[in-house]
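JOB MANIFEST
job_type = single_chain_structure
chain_count = 1
residues = 203
[input]
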Amino acid sequence: TLAKGEADMTEITGRERVVAAMKRKYADCIPASLILGAFRARILNCPLKEYFRDGNKLAEGTIAAYEQFGHDAVEICWDIMMEAEAAGAELEFPEDSMPQIKRSVLGEKRDLGKLMIPNPEKSGRYPLYLEACRKTLKALKGPNTAGALTGPWTTATGLRGAQESGRGATGGGALRSSRAISPAGTSTVTGSRWEGAPLGVKP
């Protein structure tokens, strides 16, 4: 029996639960994760327009959500148009809604040759996102933490537009471009997010 205020040094962390599951082993229970999205902004009582443009709000909301729910795996994610924005797409930020494409960077097929591979340290909101990841990693030691990237199909719609990407899917121009600007290892299935494994752990 632990004395009052004494910590249980045998308590299993969320990260350890996730690592055990990836190794097909069992810890004390099955790890739980939450996909919270913009609900983090509600936890902070922050307008979405401000939340999606302030990396500090992303970090604060992610940390506050973990403190409230205590989930084992913490996903650090913003919105699904970050990669397209970093490649040159122009976004608009409604007061209380998700970021939306205002101008596609591949409005015309001939623009494909002008597309530049973005630099995560400089392009779009990626520098803000990376700083939010660093702050979150520094603050949270117990759970498994993972960044999230937008998959190629979703990025293609941000680069070219949903209808145009669908019509041109057989040609594959926008899809090839989206694969080029997505970091190696991202999923190529029709999905919007991909989560990385814990650092140093092979699935």
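[summary]
The longest strand covers residues 144-150.
Confidence is low (pLDDT under 50) at residues 1-9, 183-203.
exit_status = 0
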